[in-house]
Amino acid sequence: MPMPAAEIEAAILAALPGATLELTDLAGDGDHYAAVVTAPQFQGLTRVKQHKLVYEALGGRMGGALHALKLTTIAA
Q1: The pTM is what?
Q2: How many CB atoms lie within 10 A of CB 19?
Q3: Which of 25, 39, 48, 68 could form a disulfide with 32 if both were Cys (CB 3.0 to 4.6 A apart)?
């Protein structure tokens, strides 16, 4: 079962207070998303560490309930 957009948004924003998120359903199937996450927590981190914070926020649902996420991170 696909992960609803509202659930993705809630998980990321709860884990990264002060972040903003733009979420787009790429295929219209609720299973392939693109996200642009802007967060102060990304300051001074490599892109890999920024992405890791987002994946950790999703609690291991990547590859399961959430099949694909094209991720762009921006330090605020």
Answers
A1: 0.91
A2: 21
A3: 68
Cα-based angle 54, 29, 68 (whole degrees, multiple of 5):
30
Please tell me the total count of domains within the chain. Answer: 1
Please list the rounded mean pLDDT of every run of 10 residues in the chain (76 residues): 90 97 91 95 98 94 87 97
Structure tokens at 65: 């309930």
Give the integer Cα–Cα distance in Å for 58 and 47: 17
Contact 52, 15 (CB under 8 A): no
Write the CB contacts of 74 (distance below 8 Å, at least 6 apart in sequence): 36, 37, 38, 39, 42
